[in-house]
Amino acid sequence: MTEFQPRVFSGVQPTGNLHLGNYLGAIVNFVALQQSHDCIYCVVDMHAITVWQDPKELSRQIREVTAAFVAAGIDPVKHIVFNQSQVSAHAELAWIFNCVARIGWMNRMTQFKDKAGKDKENASLGLLAYPSLMAADILAYKATHVPVGEDQKQHLELTRDIAQKFNNDYAESIAEHGFGDAFFPLTEPLITGPATRIMSLRDGTKKMSKSDPSDYSRINLTDDAEAIATKIRKAKTDADALPGETDGLKGRPEADNLVGIYAALSGLSKQDVLNQFGGQQFSAFKPALADLAVEKLGPIGAEMRRLMADPGHIDQILANGALRADAIARPILDGVKDVVGFIRRK
Ligand code: TYM
């Protein structure tokens, strides 16, 4: 079996406000993985334009996600932070994957169905091909581990399907070119912790999302202490006290969500949180949660604002990251081209 060097890759779209779901479901894990792995974190601006983005706003959001990465504790010197469109290997490999993946696979993606809505014919072609670009993001670096929230699971399964089909379709050429029995690794999703799916504060059955029209549905990383406290105070709950055991959260999506948020913010398990708050009313739990959220998120928001005041510095981080990302992706893409039978300029 071909051995692959462990490498972490993940991406975040620069669309709308980064929120607590992005932070707890993904970014916290990005930060932790820096201790054990070489990590590449990408601001996926090419994915963003699969739905319309105002150009000025897009540039601002690319910088804002970069600022969030750094403010949350990602080290852009030891690891790599860059925006996707600066490394052309993503687009080039995505095209090859468009020819490996099947239209039927793309049509089955729940995110495509949700985003395209009823008028599928009018969705951009890019929105349909979105998961193929995502597979290219990951596999351009032969990344072995991808930390994401629960909502990206299906896309990562598709990434494995694409890698597998490429490895099978080109098996002979892969071996002939000295790449052993597999060119691409079958990437492992890392969907871990008590907050893999943070729900809306207004409706515990809906995912917390950048695109929800109600700002009260989410806590943004840039919210100030007052906004955080207000949103948690107004969060939907039921009338019962918190249970003593996690089993008691079943069928209570709002309670489950708030306990999960507390657990993730404090680094405890949900059971630990219930050991502390079981039997108490939301009127007691919500202020404690608000204090904790302000304590954890306040400094990140403040650091983001500080970084955003110097866009030149952020652009430098991205340019430097892009150069280093390109140096990894380029030889991998050259290998892909050789395997496929393209003739390269040497
Ligand atoms: P995006 O930008 O929608 O979200 C970024 C990360 O945040 C996670 N997330 C959540 N986690 C928990 N609860 C929530 N409510 C919640 N909302 C979002 C997402 O799972 C994600 O990890 N397609 C990706 C971006 C992408 C990517 C990649 C990811 C492009 N290429 C390659 C990994 C590898 C997306 O739209 O994420």
From TrEMBL:
GO terms for molecular function: tryptophan-tRNA ligase activity. Gene3D superfamilies: HUPs, Tyrosyl-Transfer RNA Synthetase. Its EC number is 6.1.1.2. Transmembrane segments: none annotated. It catalyses: tRNA(Trp) + L-tryptophan + ATP = L-tryptophyl-tRNA(Trp) + AMP + diphosphate + H(+). ATP binds at residues 13-15, 21-22, 149-151, 198, 207-211. It comes from the Bacteria. Catalyzes the attachment of tryptophan to tRNA(Trp). Belongs to the class-I aminoacyl-tRNA synthetase family. This is Tryptophan--tRNA ligase.
